[in-house]
Write a structure and sequence with these properties.
globular; 6-stranded antiparallel beta sheet; 5-stranded antiparallel beta sheet; alpha/beta; 45 helices; about 45% helix
C-alpha cells in the first residue's frame, strides 16, 4: 500500500498535533520552514518538505513518537547522517532525527563484539576500539560521519568488502521498536527457539509465524533463488534479504541459524526503528600496508587487470576514473594545497582509469615481493602503463582521494551535475568486464557523459551520470538509462543496488528485477511489520516513479542574483551554492578544520550542508521582492565562523565564508547592520584613533569591572579579555629603526597589516629583525587595511574599497622575486583569496597576478628554504619541542605542512601540529556574548587540552592573533608567532 495523507483538514490539525507530541516527549519537535528545509534533502537528487523534525532524547521518547505516528498515521522517516544517495531519508512525513542515540553500551574483547546505539559514528567507534586492537570492518567513504544505524539500513560495505564483507555480515543482534510501539530483540535462533517465537502472541511473534508460512513453500524458495542476485555477489541490497532467510536451517538443511538481523540489514528503516545493535569485530589489517596504483588508458582493460590483481589476495581493489583524475588536476591549478590537490600528486600522466590495489602483510619486504609479482604479470600481459608502489603517508593520501570522489563529482561549475542512478550496480566480478562493456554502449548510445569509480575488486562500479537536472531532457535521459541498465543487470543476475539501497530511486524497478512473485512477497513482509506503513513509506516497495520529488524542478530557471563578489567562475552565486550535493563531509567530527561550529554543537543546522540547503531553498524559491530578504538565511549563517575550511576540505569546494559575506552585505543593505557588526568592521580604525591613549585604554579594558560597561554596550562577553593596544604602532617603530642588512641580497615586502600595527607591533618588529639578519631588505608597505574585519562581518562594499586601493597601490610593486608577506595570516589571505573576485573589473588581472606573489609568512620561509636562501645552519642546534596550532586560513588556502616545515628550520626543533579545528575565536566570533560559550567548546575539543598537557618547556606556536588570544584566555599560556620563535633560534 502507499500511505495516503487523509485530507486537507489533516494539515489544519497538524500544528496542534505536533504541539501535543512536543509536550509529551523530553526531546524536541520543530516544524518551522527553515528546519523542514534543512531536512528536505540528503545526498541524493531528491527533495521533499517533511512535516517536521522530531529529536527524541531516549527510548521512552522513541516509543511515544512511534505510537503517536501510528495513532495519527503520520509517516516516520528515520535519519542518521543523511548521506544516503537513493533518497532513503527524504519524504513528506516526520523526520526522526536519531542523533541523541550515540552511546557505546557494551563491549566484550574476548568474544569480539560491541553493542552501540544507532547514531554512533563508524570512525568514532573504531577510535574507541583501537586501544583494544579491534575494529568494525565495513567502511563507507563517508565513515567519518556515517552512523551505524544508517550503515545497517543500507547494508553498507565500503572499500574493504573483499575481506570484511558487508554490515549485514557483522550484525549479530539488534533491538528495535516495532510499529505498535512494542520492543523486539532480534538475534540468531536455534530451530527450537525459532518455533517457540512463532507461538508468541505479540507483533514480534507474528513476524516469525508469517515468515515461516511464506518461506516453508518450496516454490517460494525456488522463486527467491532464481529471482535474487547470484549467491556469489557479496554486494546485494535489492528488496528485502528474504533469500538469505530462506537459506537458514529452518528451511535448508545445513544452513545457519535463522537471524532476523539478515532482514533488518538493508531494510532502510522501513520495518522498525533500531535502538541498539551488537556488532561483530575484526582485527586490524597486518601492520605494513602498500598500494599499487595501476594506471590504464582503457577502462575495460583495467577491469580485466583487476582479475589479475585479485590473485594476489589484496585487501582492497578500487577504481578511480578519468573524470576524477581530470578534476583533481584542475583543482591543483586553483589551489595546490587543498585536500584534493595534496592527495593527487602521485597520478602519472592522464589515465582513463586507475586501479588502486592494497596489499597488507607483516613486513615491507613481503608487500614488495607481492607487488613486484603483480606488476611483472601486468607488464607481461601488457596491461597498463604505470604501476607505482606506495607506503606510509602516501597510502592515506591515495585513500583520502578515493573517499572524496563523491564530492569531486559535484566540483565542476555549471548545471551539468552528477546523478546517482546506476552508480550502485553489482555483478559477479568475473562478469564485470562484459557487463561494463555493454553498460558503456548504452550510455554512449544515450549520449550521456559518465565516469566510473569504486569497488572494482568486488564487482561494483559507481558509474556516475552527468546530466542537467534542471531540464526535462536531462531527467528523461537518466530514466531511459536506468530502465535499460536494470534489464542489463537482470541479465547478469546482478544487483541494481549493491550498498546504497533501493530507496525511492531504484525501488520502482524491483518487480522487474526480482520477479513479481518475489516483489509481492516483499510487500507482504512490509505490511506484516508495518500494517499502516508509517515507517519510511514508499521506499523499497510501493515507490513512486524515480523522476518525481527531485531537488531541481525541470524547466525552473536559476535566479541570476546581483552580487558584490565576482562569481563568474561558478556561473553565478546560485550555482556556487549548488556545488553542495549533500554528501556531508562537513559533518565529520574527529579530524580536519571543517566545520568547527558543527563539531561544537553536533546540530545539523550548524553544518555547511544545512547552510547551503537554506541558501538554495530561500534564494531560489521566494515571493520576496528582494531574494536576499530572508532572516532565515541570516540565522543559519550566524554560527559560520568564516574559517574557510569548506573551501579546502569540501571535495566540491563550497566556499561558505564568501557566501556568508555576500549575503550579509545584501541583508545590511535592506535592514542595516546594527551597532556591534559596525564596531567590529571598523575595529582597527577605532583602535588607531585610540592608540594615543593606549595606556588608559589598556587600563580600562584590562580590568574586568571597568571594562564591563563597554563590553555590555558592544555585545561582547564579560568573560572574554580584550586585546591590548601597543603604546607605539608597528609602522612608527619600523620608521624609527628601519633595520638594514649590510649583506641584503633579496627583497621582501612586509604588508603592515591592521592587527599587527596596533596590537602586535612587537611581532612585526621580530619579523623585520629576523628577515634582516637573514640577509633580506624588508620594505614595509602601508596603504589601506586588508579588509578582513569588514569581510568577517559582511561589510563587503567597505572591503572592496580597501581591495581596489591596495591592488592599485601594490600591483606594480610586488613580484615573484620581491613578494609580499604579512604577520597576520588572515590579512594576507585577503590578497590571496578574496581580492581577485572583489576588485573592480579593470583591476582583476592585476589582483590575480598580485595574489600569486602574496605569501603567508611561513609559506615564504618554506619557499626560501627550498631555494637555499634560508638554511638550518643559520639557527641554533639546541633541542626544543614545538607544538603548533595552525591558523584556519593557513590550513585552507596555504598548508599546515609549510608551517611545520618553517618551524623545523632549527634542526633539533621537534615540531608537531596540534590536530585542532578552528581555535574558536574566528576574529570577533569568540568575543560576542552569544557565541563565547561555543567558542570555548570548539577550543576545548582538541586545542586547549593539548596546550595544557604540554610541558612548560614546550614552545606553543600560533601565527594568528585571535588564536594566540584564545590560547591565553583558555589555557593561560603565551603562544608565540613563528617569526618570534625563529628569531629566538637565530644564531646569525
Amino acid at each position: 500500500m502507499t500511505l495516503q495523507i487523509p485530507d486537507p483538514e489533516y494539515f489544519k490539525a497538524l500544528p496542534s498535533l505536533l504541539d501535543r507530541l512536543a509536550h509529551s516527549i523530553k526531546g524536541t519537535v520543530r516544524s518551522d520552514e527553515a528546519s523542514r528545509t534543512i531536512f528536505a534533502s540528503d545526498a541524493s537528487a531528491y527533495q521533499e518538505m517533511p512535516l517536521g523534525v522530531v529529536t527524541p532524547e531516549d527510548k521512552e521518547d522513541l516509543i511515544t513518537i512511534v505510537r503517536f505516528c501510528q495513532e495519527h498515521k503520520v509517516p516516520l522517516i528515520p535519519r542518521g547522517a543523511g548521506t544516503s544517495l537513493a533518497g532513503q531519508v527524504v519524504g513528506s512525513g516526520l523526520v526522526l532525527d536519531m542523533r541523541r542515540f550515540n552511546r557505546i553500551l557494551d563491549f566484550n574483547k574476548e568474544e569480539k563484539w560491541v553493542t552501540v546505539e544507532p547514531s554512533v559514528i563508524r570512525n568514532s567507534l573504531n577510535d574507541w576500539l583501537a586501544p583494544h586492537g579491534l575494529l568494525f570492518g565495513p567502511e563507507t567513504s563517508t565513515a567519518n560521519r556515517a552512523v551505524i544505524g544508517g550503515m545497517i539500513g543500507n547494508n553498507s560495505c565500503g572499500m574493504h568488502s573483499i575481506v570484511w564483507g558487508s554490515t549485514r555480515d557483522h550484525l549479530l543482534s539488534c533491538r528495535a521498536i516495532l510499529a505498535d510501539g512494542s520492543e523486539a530483540s532480534f538475534q540468531a535462533l536455534t530451530p527450537e527457539d525459532f518455533h517457540a517465537k512463532r507461538t508468541e502472541q505479540t507483533l514480534e511473534g507474528s513476524l516469525y509465524e508469517m515468515l515461516y508460512q511464506e518461506l516453508k513453500s518450496e516454490q517460494t524458495r525456488s522463486d527467491l533463488e532464481k529471482g535474487y542476485p547470484k549467491a556469489s555477489i557479496r554486494r546485494r541490497n535489492n528488496g528485502y534479504a528474504l533469500d538469505l532467510l530462506a537459506r537458514s536451517n529452518i528451511f535448508t538443511d545445513g544452513g545457519p541459524n535463522f537471524n532476523m538481523c539478515k532482514l533488518i540489514a538493508g531494510s532502510e528503516g522501513t520495518l522498525c526503528v533500531l535502538t541498539e545493535a551488537t556488532l561483530n569485530l575484526v582485527e586490524p589489517l597486518p601492520p605494513v600496508i602498500g598500494v599499487v596504483a595501476m594506471h590504464f588508458e582503457d577502462s575495460i582493460e583495467s577491469l580485466k587487470a583487476t582479475l589479475v590483481a585479485l590473485k594476489y589476495k589484496p585487501t582492497s581493489c578500487e577504481l578511480i576514473g578519468a573524470f576524477h583524475v581530470q578534476q583533481a588536476m584542475e583543482n591543483n591549478k586553483v589551489n595546490k594545497f587543498n585536500t584534493i590537490a595534496r592527495c593527487s600528486q602521485w597520478i602519472i600522466g592522464a589515465p582513463e582509469s586507475i586501479i588502486v590495489v592494497e596489499l597488507a602483510d607483516d613486513t615491507r619486504e613481503a608487500v614488495e615481493q607481492r607487488a613486484a609479482a603483480l606488476t611483472a604479470e601486468l607488464a607481461e600481459k601488457k596491461m597498463g602503463y604505470a604501476w607505482p608502489l606506495f607506503f606510509g603517508e602516501d597510502v592515506e593520501k591515495i585513500w583520502q582521494l578515493r573517499r572524496d570522489l563523491g564530492g569531486i563529482n559535484s566540483s565542476k561549475a555549471g548545471d551539468i551535475k552528477p546523478f546517482e542512478a546506476i552508480e550502485d550496480c553489482a555483478v559477479d566480478v568475473e562478469d564485470q568486464p562484459a557487463y561494463v562493456t555493454e553498460l558503456e554502449r548504452i550510455l554512449h548510445r544515450e549520449g550521456i557523459q559518465f565516469t566510473h569509480s569504486a569497488h572494482a575488486g568486488d564487482g561494483e562500479l559507481h558509474t556516475i551520470l552527468f546530466v542537467n537536472h534542471k531540464t526535462k531532457e536531462g531527467i528523461a535521459s537518466v530514466r531511459s538509462a536506468l530502465e535499460q541498465v536494470a534489464k542489463l543487470v537482470k541479465r547478469f543476475r546482478g544487483s541494481l543496488s549493491g550498498e546504497h539501497g533501493d530507496g525511492r530511486l531504484r525501488a520502482e524497478f524491483l518487480p522487474e528485477l526480482l520477479g513479481d512473485a518475489n516483489y509481492q512477497l516483499c510487500k507482504r513482509v512490509k505490511s506484516a511489520f508495518d500494517a499502516s506503513h508509517i515507517f519510511n513509506p514508499n521506499k523499497i516497495v510501493d515507490a513512486p516513479p524515480m523522476d518525481v520529488s527531485l531537488r531541481y524542478i525541470p524547466g525552473e530557471e536559476t535566479p541570476d542574483l546581483p552580487t558584490y563578489f565576482n562569481w563568474d567562475k561558478d556561473q553565478g552565486l546560485m550555482r556556487a551554492v549548488e556545488r553542495c550535493s549533500g554528501i556531508g563531509e562537513c559533518k565529520k567530527v574527529t579530524s580536519g578544520l571543517m566545520c568547527p561550529s558543527y563539531m561544537g554543537t553536533r546540530e545539523e543546522k550548524d553544518s555547511t550542508r544545512a547552510r547551503a540547503n537554506i541558501l538554495r531553498g530561500f534564494l531560489s524559491r521566494t515571493d520576496k521582492a528582494n531574494r536576499y530578504d530572508h532572516k532565515e538565511i541570516k540565522d543559519i549563517l550566524d554560527l559560520c565562523l568564516s574559517c574557510k575550511g569548506c573551501k579546502s576540505e569540501c571535495p566540491a569546494g563550497v566556499d561558505m565564508a564568501r557566501m556568508k559575506a555576500e549575503f550579509m552585505q545584501h541583508y545590511f543593505d535592506l535592514h542595516g547592520s546594527g551597532l556591534r557588526p559596525w564596531l567590529v568592521a571598523h575595529f582597527t580604525t577605532l583602535m588607531g584613533l585610540a592608540l594615543p591613549f593606549a595606556p588608559l585604554y589598556n587600563l580600562i579594558m584590562g580590568n574586568r569591572v571597568l571594562s564591563a560597561p563597554v563590553k555590555l554596550a558592544a555585545g561582547f562577553a564579560l568573560d572574554r579579555s580584550m586585546p591590548a593596544l601597543c603604546r607605539l604602532s608597528f609602522e612608527k617603530q619600523y620608521n624609527r629603526e628601519i633595520p638594514t642588512s649590510a649583506k641584503a641580497m633579496r627583497k621582501v615586502h612586509l604588508f603592515c597589516d591592521e592587527f599587527t600595527n596596533v596590537n602586535d607591533a612587537h611581532i612585526g618588529m621580530a619579523t623585520v629583525h629576523l628577515l634582516t639578519r637573514l640577509g633580506y631588505e624588508v620594505v614595509l608597505l602601508r596603504n589601506k587595511e586588508s579588509g578582513r574585519s569588514s569581510l568577517s562581518q559582511g561589510f563587503v562594499k567597505r572591503a572592496k574599497l580597501f581591495a581596489d586601493s591596495n591592488v592599485a597601490a601594490f600591483g606594480d610593486i610586488i613580484s615573484e622575486d620581491a613578494p609580499m608577506i604579512a604577520v597576520e595570516p588572515s590579512t594576507i589571505a585577503c590578497f590571496k583569496d578574496e581580492y581577485p573576485d572583489l576588485v573592480a573589473p579593470d583591476l582583476r588581472d592585476k589582483a590575480k597576478a598580485l595574489s600569486k606573489n602574496c605569501l603567508m609568512f611561513e609559506e615564504f620561509i618554506a619557499r626560501e628554504m627550498d631555494t637555499g636562501h634560508i638554511r638550518p645552519e643559520h639557527f641554533t642546534k639546541e633541542t626544543k619541542e614545538v607544538r603548533v596550532h595552525v591558523h584556519c586560513h593557513q590550513k585552507s588556502i596555504s598548508s599546515s605542512d609549510l608551517v611545520v616545515k618553517a618551524l623545523s628550520l632549527p634542526e633539533n626543533y621537534h615540531v608537531s601540529e596540534i590536530p585542532s579545528s578552528c581555535c574558536g575565536m574566528a576574529g570577533a566570533f569568540g568575543y560576542e556574548k552569544e557565541h563565547h560559550a561555543l567558542s570555548m567548546t570548539i577550543a576545548e575539543q582538541i586545542l586547549l587540552p593539548a596546550v595544557r598537557k604540554a610541558d612548560e618547556s614546550v614552545i606553543i606556536a600560533a601565527s594568528g592573533t585571535s588564536c594566540r588570544h584564545q590560547i591565553k584566555d583558555g589555557a593561560k599560556r603565551e603562544a608565540l608567532h613563528s617569526a618570534e620563535i625563529l628569531l629566538q633560534a637565530l644564531k646569525v
